[in-house]
Specification:
It is a single chain. Helix content is 46%, strand content 14%. The protein is of the alpha/beta class. The protein folds into two domains: 117 residues, Aspartate Aminotransferase, domain 1, CATH 3.90.1150; 231 residues, Aspartate Aminotransferase, domain 2 (3-Layer(aba) Sandwich). Helix 7 links the parallel strand 7 and strand 8. The longest helix has 33 residues.
């Protein structure tokens, strides 16, 4: 029965991971995989996570199933973290999922059930899994302009012009803080404009949130989402705890719908049904770690301090890379890197230039020039800046 199957194309990020692992060079630089790394190149277990796990180990007395929605303490804690007091919590329907990817998929399935003709609008620069997840749910996707490549900033003219093409009932997928691979975030004024346009057109925002705390801080990073939730009748959210809690392999996610109070029960039941039909009960351990941290004042203080250290390290790497590129290239063409935030930037490099950096200098990044600032150390910053400068000196088209 399987003779008709063709080998699938390997995801670009996974292919890059494989190539990096097989490269024998000791001075290679991994800027591709989107995980946080400390100054020693490790992705550490946060001290708050270790402490929460010890507490769980000592007190948990059952491994029985919870509910199809997941642990209520986790769902409530994440609602507070994401939304604060922006909306009444009786407008919120949510379920746990195995990571943010499953949350995106469940939201897409929810959209298909509610309005199968809806178009999901996605930024021109996004993650490799967004378009396949939308397609797998049987939905149509269209792109909207996002990045002004010349300035490394938001293409506000193109962005808002494309949003005006959205129809009533369509869905617009927007990245939460630090989540767009370009490193470019909307300002709070931009979020207000997004809310006004979508409200006028009758469209629904879908916020993919995975890096709260990596930009300007936990509260500031949630401001855009909270503004949408406070001004619009319906908002969809996919959230992940992989990054800001360092729980990558625990697969901790959340699918959320913010709706009028009289529709909440229907949305909650539908999300639970979607869980039942795909993976049934969401995993508990990672979610229990999160709720334990957020529900304990001392552990929360410890976690917030660690997250701030991570945020500062990424910001320092960003500034250092911009400075090194300025020195090595003798220009400010990469100066925008310092003004962005979060772990990612999109360097204006062609696929050929990226490949040459990999072959000649062992510098690994995605083919579109996306780099992970957390993958840098002093040697990596120097090597990357020198590699880019060498391309320029050789007349390589960037």
């Amino acid at each position: 029965m399987f003779e008709t199957l063709a080998s699938p194309k390997l995801d670009g990020i996974i292919a890059l991971m494989q190539a990096y692992a097989e490269d024998p060079r000791s001075d290679k630089v991994d800027l591709g995989v989107g995980v946080y790394r400390d100054a020693k190149g490790r992705t550490p277990v946060m001290r708050a996570v270790k402490a929460a796990e010890r507490k769980i180990l000592e007190t948990q007395d059952s491994k029985s199933y919870l509910s199809l929605a997941g642990d209520r303490a986790f769902l409530d804690a994440m609602t507070g973290l994401l939304l604060g007091e922006a909306v009444a919590h009786d407008r919120v329907a949510s379920v746990g999922t195995p990571g943010g990817t499953a949350a995106v998929r469940q939201i897409c399935e929810l959209i298909r059930r509610a309005r199968p003709e809806a178009v999901v609008w996605v930024s021109a620069q996004t993650w490799p899994n967004h378009m396949p997840l939308i397609a797998a749910a049987g939905l149509e996707a269209r792109r909207y302009r996002y990045l002004d490549a010349a300035s490394g900033a938001l293409d506000r003219g193109g962005f808002f012009a494309d949003l005006e093409q959205v129809r009533q009932g369509d869905v617009v997928l927007v990245h939460g803080c630090c989540h767009n691979p370009t490193g470019v975030d909307p300002t709070l004024q931009d979020w207000a404009e997004i809310a006004a346009i979508l409200d006028r057109l009758g469209a629904v925002p879908f916020v993919d949130m995975a890096y709260q705390g990596f930009g300007a801080g936990l509260e500031a990073d949630a401001a855009g989402l909270r503004l949408l939730a406070s001004r619009l009748p319906e908002v969809l959210v996919a959230a992940s705890c992989s990054k800001n809690f360092g729980l990558y392999r625990e697969r901790v996610g959340l699918a959320m719908a913010i709706v009028p109070e009289d529709r909440r029960a229907t949305l909650a039941g539908t999300l639970v049904g979607l869980n039942r039909q795909s993976f049934a009960f969401p995993p508990d351990h990672g979610g229990r770690v999160v709720s334990t941290i957020l529900g304990d004042a001392a552990l929360r203080d410890l976690w917030e301090g660690e997250l701030e250290e991570m945020r500062q390290r990424v910001a320092e790497n960003r500034r250092a890379l911009a400075d090194a590129l300025r020195v090595e290239t003798r220009s400010d063409r990469f100066g925008f890197v310092a003004g962005q935030q979060g772990m990612f930037s999109l360097l204006p490099l062609s696929a050929d230039a990226v490949e040459k950096l990999r072959m000649d200098a062992g510098i690994y990044m995605l083919g579109d020039g996306r780099v992970n600032m957390a993958g840098l150390d002093a040697a990596g910053i120097s090597a990357t800046a020198q590699g880019v400068a060498k391309l320029l000196s050789e007349g390589q088209t960037l």
